[in-house]
Fold this sequence. Notes:
- This protein has 247 residues and is of the alpha/beta class.
- It has helices at 24-38, 56-59, 72-82, 94-100, 102-111, 151-154, 160-165, 181-199, 214-217, 221-235, and strands at residues 44-48, 63-66, 87-93, 116-121, 170-177, 204-210, 239-243.
- Helix 2 (56-59) links the parallel strand 1 (44-48) and strand 2 (63-66).
- Helix 1 (24-38) packs across helix 8 (181-199) and helix 4 (94-100) packs across helix 5.
- The chain starts with 23 loop residues before the first helix and ends with a strand.
Amino acid sequence: MQQVFAHPVSLKDVQTHFCPGCQHGTIHRLVAEAMDHFGVQEKTIGVASVGCSVFLYAYFDIDVVEAPHGRAPAVATGVKRACPDKFVFTYQGDGDLAAIGTSEIIHAANRGEGMTVIFVNNTTYGMTGGQMAPTTLPNQKTSTSPYGRNVGNDGYPIRMAELLAQLEGVAFSARVAVNTPKNVMQAGRVIKQAFETQLQGRGFSFVEVLSACPTNWGMDPLKANARIAEEMIPYFPLATFKDTSAA
């Protein structure tokens, strides 16, 4: 009998600490499956920044470097340039990448650094109390916007995948979600495309993943999952915005 589903080799067999309904675990599995698919576990170096992403080392059976808040692309740049034969990826949240790390992500992308960035967008600062993030939706209530995000005062949510796709150094930029089995399968395919972009030496690759944060949204996991389809995807459409392999 053929085995069709197994624990990824690149993922440690440990109990998760994430909140009920959190989808970091699903995303971790997809990243690990991509590593297994290309056989790059032994030469992979992950770079984690501050936030829920900081626990990368606890779940992936690879070498991991910890970076200061928002600086994972800068650290990954150094790692990749020092070790060009390694497969290098960062794993970051929206408060980390799109706020304090805006400069680092934009300039690493613009330079076409040969890395892959996995960007988890759950529209909130997940680890530090649910504050408003650059991706918080209009009128969304957070611990620092208790009456809802006011775009007149706070600006509009940033669509990072579209923003980075405009830069010359970016070879691949896409947005996926993990709220349904169909979307999870598509997310896995897209992450593999991003990995392949780096392995082919084509430049910078970026995957934004829409994810639930039931605890900070004040919802049960089912309602939080439904919110992705009803609120997040209409504002952050799922698509591949740039793929130089198709040029």
